[in-house]
Amino acid sequence: MRNHKDLIVWQKSMELVKKLYQVTQCFPKEEAYGITSQMRRAAISIPSNIAEGYGRGHDRELIQFLYISLGSASELETQLIISNDIHYLPDNSYQELSCLNNEIILMLSSLINKRVQSPLST
Q1: pLDDT exceeds cutoff 60 at 109
Q2: Which residues, including other chains, have CB under 8 Å from residue 5's CB and lie 6 or more apart?
Q3: Which of 65, 76, 99, 117 could potentially form a cystine with 42 if both were Cys, beta carbons 3.0 to 4.6 Å apart?
Q4: d(Cα 3, Cα 54) in Å, to the nearest integer?
Q5: Mean pLDDT of the region 10-37
Q6: Are 55 and 66 within 8 A, CB to CB?
Q7: pLDDT at 43
Q8: Which one, of 116, 118, 76, 103, lies nearest residue 9 by Cα?
């Protein structure tokens, strides 16, 4: 593994950010500083924290930042549900984003468990 950009979870989380930005452009303008901003920040936090963790050089710090990414993905999961429930997010977009986000959550959980069980450095 050369760097964070080689990780499939980072690549998928970047894809999620792009898709989320496209979808939220259609949200009501009065939500620009509300749920739109909150969702975008949560989504951006996922790949950003993966990158920061890998940039730190120690497994303990990497695991900490992977947990932050996982928390952001969980936060986004709730925001996707809310957006769908209040009819800002069409069902097809909700399904696509939710499936991608759930895949990222599973990948992050697996990566965290793998690192916790066999750390490479201290």
Answers
A1: yes
A2: 11, 51
A3: 76
A4: 7
A5: 97
A6: no
A7: 98
A8: 103
